[in-house]
Amino acid sequence: MICFDETILTKQSQQITEAIVERVESVLVGKQHSVRLALACLYAGGHLLIEDLPGMGKTTLAQALAAAIGLSYTRVQFTSDLLPADIIGVSVYDRNKAAFEFHPGPLFNQLVLADEINRTTPKTQSALLEAMAEGQVSVEGETRQLPQPFYVIATQNPLSQSGTFPLPESQLDRFLMRLRLGYPDPEAERQLLSGSDPRLKLGELSRAITPAQLEAIQTAVNQVKVSDSLVDYLQRLLQFTRSSAEIDYGISPRGGMAVLKSARAWALMEGRDYVIPEDIQAVFAPVCAHRLPVSGGEHMADNFIQQTLNSVDII
Amino acid sequence: MRPLWQIPRNSLFWLLLSVVISIALHLEHLPPWVALAGIVATLWQIQLYRERWRQPGRLLKWSLAGACAGGLFLHYGRMNGLEPMVALLFSGYSLKLLELHHKRDALVLIYLSYLIIILQSLFSTTIVSSFLVLIALLPVTAALVAMHGGAENTRPVAALRTGLAMLLQAIPLMLVMFIVMPRIGSLWAIPQKTSGTTGVSDSMSPGDMTRLGRSGKIAFRVEFDGPIPAQSQLYWRGLVFSGFDGRRWDQQGPWGYNDGKFLQWSDQGLEAWDSVIKRRGEPLSYRVTLEATNSPWLFALSTPLPQSSTVALSRDFRLVSKNPVNAKLQYSVKSWLNNQLEPESLVGWRHKLELALPSGFNPKTREIAEQWREQTPDTLALINRLLALYNQEFIYTLRPPALGKHTVDEFLWGTKKGFCEFYASSFVFFMRAAGVPARVVVGYQGGERHPTENYLLVHQYDAHAWAEVWIQGSGWLRVDPTAAVAPERIEMSFADLFSEQADFLSASPFALERLRHIQWLNNLRLKLDSLDYAWAKWVLGYENVQNDFLLSLLGAINPQRIALFLLLAGGIALLPIFIMLYLSRDKNTRDELDRLFLQYCSRLEKMGLPRRPGEGARDFAQRISRCAPGLAEAVEHLTGIYESARYGEEGGTEVKAFKTALKGFKPSREELLSST
């Protein structure tokens, strides 16, 4: 059914992407750019952190994505009394077999939506983050593989931080991108208010991609060409963040690799088999903003990233 | 409220430092409260930057400006003149610190800093202050650099380094300009300083010379072509006082002569009265470097003939400068030590003037003088008799007792203690009372020989007053009554004589001269002085030899040659910088594709469509397509080739394709206009 010839794949990736974006957009109105970024994050094999106020569509985005991609999906609402065992799973004694039997927790799904991740204790956060980094969990001395592909979409609420445990920088680093959805534009909002609740359509969403296609796309992302001058450009961007006096320390090499991987996915989604500076510019803010230690609020980080992109020329 | 614009942090740092340095440079001649206002403004700006204090309101700023102008007027009593103007500029400069609202305000402040620092040269041109001025330019330049530095350069040190490099690069050009640029004296005429004269003044009353004896400042330096004459020959004649009002001696106007102009300029031939000067033997040839005195009179050995065009010989055989000496002045003189001045006759009114005495003063002296005249009709014998009196009973001291109304009577027959002006004054009074024409001469006597360099240092404490007596047949004869009472004053230098006395140099508590008994400090002082003298001679005095030097360099001085030389020498001076720039440019040469892309960008920029910094080729093309749909096709085509060549598969053919496509890409304004 699907031919994996390279040039055809780039075209196909674009088509598949458009199909997924269209389906997700029918539920989450007017957020095409965020949807594309979220998709790029998944193509690049990274985990996604969505940070916004309640009611902005964080959960809807995650649910629609899961449905459109056709992954097995669970949602875990993180609370302060959630324990690692609650998400990983527990062994229960089976009297018939006279043995302990492992009951997998919600983590044993391809797409896990970790809602309000900053509400739970660092202990549970660490359990989740270990699973994210390794793709496996250790329970009672036994290491169990998580299903492939394994994605975590976490959400957090930047306001009302009382009683929360903000993720430290080292754990924020595990997320490839951090997105903010923001308010819809007036037209999208009017559409949202006048029609029926688009979330009702969530159940009707059909998958637009097969697991094999997703795997093929993920392989193709790694084959997207990155030229020397593009590497130079990226390096100059990273260097700029490190030499600036406005922030204490710049983007780490791991951050740089994350940018490049996301840019590759973005290029593939655009139907290209090579990366251009615009790809890097498109993913730079969502990949880097949460990796920058900026004092003085989130606006400073956004301004600084914009300043970086405006200051470093492409050649 | 946050200001609309904020000066870069590093620029502010250097700017404030420049302000503080300017204050320090001008501290000596600013009213203290103006300097204080500058410091307060600096602190205020710091607090503003830290958002601790608020911007001063319009009313406060206006009233501060008014207060400064009014305060300066009260302080100086007038607004014209150098010092009030500098102080006014300075207060404006400090107040400008309080309104750094826009970039242009900061730039004005930086440019003003340059001006204010350079203004220091109007007050002092010694080697130390010249170097201080050069060093002070550094933070200002750093502030300017930091102002224009991008967001990447926020460290003060980086700006300083760039500023230093720029200043160093400017030095060759500075040297060329120094050598070639003509000194336009009259255009730069400086308003006179308002502070009083330094050195001898145009009148003399008891105590004036004593005051000078307490100052260790340099008056002038003399370099002789031959050996330096004996100490007792070194009478540096400056002013001649013929008028006496009972206490004060002063000059009497140059009216009444009818044998030529009062001043004889060396480049305008000899006046008729030059014949009354009998010059005999070989002249001494020397150059005097006079410190600023703010007065026109100059000093020379009797009888002088000036060799510089700005110096004239006056009818009473003194040297006079064309303009008041506001800065160091160097002039050449020939002096005939063996001479006779007006030996045949004295003009009638002059004869009368040199005998005039105020009535009602010093009756005792007049009486005794008449007695002595009868007893000793020979003038020379009379002089010797009076000198003998001084020699036997009088004491030479820096601390003379105060005198009442009849100064001469009290001194001659009472206190018998005095400094040179007491002796000169009483001697001349006595001579006039005895019917001998006589007058007081002030100037300097002696000087300190520099032990290693061949020049003479004359200090303010060498100031001296002596007498001249006119005798039929021999003309004006120098008589120094001080030599009679204290011959060692004339034989030795003044400093050697008085270094033990407490009053010596009491006006200069920090002068190195006070410590002349410490050998190494004394050597250091002399070494510093020879440096300063070399500076005055070669750098400040260059304008005296500039003409000759340029003539020998260029053959002839005309505008074309000067311009040609400036271009050539300037070019040579800048050549190393060009080479450096060229080499450093070579290092990061862009490859052909990027050069072609930049060409493409610059063609669009000329159409008013510049690429934004950081804007990628595709975003750029899309923007152009929106603004100028007429160009869309060509731009999209070029961008496609560029992108695939730059970021896609490697291959030389596509560079060529881009080149070919670029050749055909000649956007014109018509296209742009028709498309919009």
Question: What are the main properties of this structure?
Answer:
heterodimer, A: Helicase, Ruva Protein, domain 3, 9 strands, globular, B: 676 residues, alpha+beta, 3 domains, 6-stranded antiparallel beta sheet, 5-stranded antiparallel beta sheet, 24 helices, 51% helix
How would you portray this structure in words?
- The complex is a heterodimer of chains A (315) and B (676).
- Chain A is an alpha/beta fold.
- Chain A has 12 helices and 9 strands.
- A 5-stranded parallel beta sheet of chain A has the order 2-5-8-1-9.
- In chain A, strand 6 (136-139) and strand 7 (142-145) form a beta hairpin.
- The longest helix of chain A is centred in the N-terminal third of the chain and has 22 residues, at 6-27.
- Chain B has 676 residues and is an alpha+beta fold.
- Chain B has 3 domains: 9-180, no CATH class; 203-515, no CATH class; 589-674, no CATH class.
- Chain B has 24 helices and 21 strands.
- In chain B, the strands form 6 sheets. In chain B, strands 10-13-8-2-19-18 form a 6-stranded antiparallel beta sheet, with helices on one face.
- In chain B, a hairpin with a 4-residue loop joins strand 4 and strand 5.
- Chain B is elongated, with a radius of gyration of 36 Å.
- The model of chain B has no long low-confidence stretch (mean pLDDT 82).
- Chains A and B meet through helix 9, helix 11 and helix 12 of A and helix 20, helix 21 and helix 22 of B.
Topology summary:
The complex is a heterodimer of chains A (315) and B (676).
Chain A lengths: L5 H22 L4 H12 L3 E5 L6 H12 L3 E5 L6 H5 E6 L4 E6 L6 E5 L6 H13 L1 E4 L2 E4 L5 E6 L12 H4 L2 E5 L6 H9 L16 H13 L4 H16 L9 H17 L7 H12 L9 H14 L4
Parallel strand pairs in A: 1-8, 1-9, 2-5, 5-8
Antiparallel strand pairs in A: 3-4, 6-7
Helix pairs in contact in A: 1-2, 1-3, 2-10, 8-10, 10-11, 11-12
Chain B lengths: L8 H18 L5 H18 L8 H19 L5 H15 L6 H21 L3 H22 L7 H25 L22 E2 L3 H5 L5 E7 L10 E7 L1 E2 L4 E2 L12 E3 L11 E3 L4 E7 L9 E2 L2 E3 L4 E4 L4 E3 L7 E7 L3 E3 L6 H6 L9 H13 L3 H15 L1 E2 L10 H9 L1 E2 L1 H14 L4 E8 L2 E2 L6 E4 L3 E9 L3 E5 L1 H5 L1 H5 L2 H5 L20 H22 L1 H13 L4 H29 L4 H15 L10 H11 L1 H19 L4 H12 L5 H7 L1
Parallel strand pairs in B: 15-16
Antiparallel strand pairs in B: 1-5, 2-8, 2-19, 3-9, 3-17, 4-5, 6-11, 7-14, 8-13, 10-13, 11-12, 17-20, 18-19, 20-21
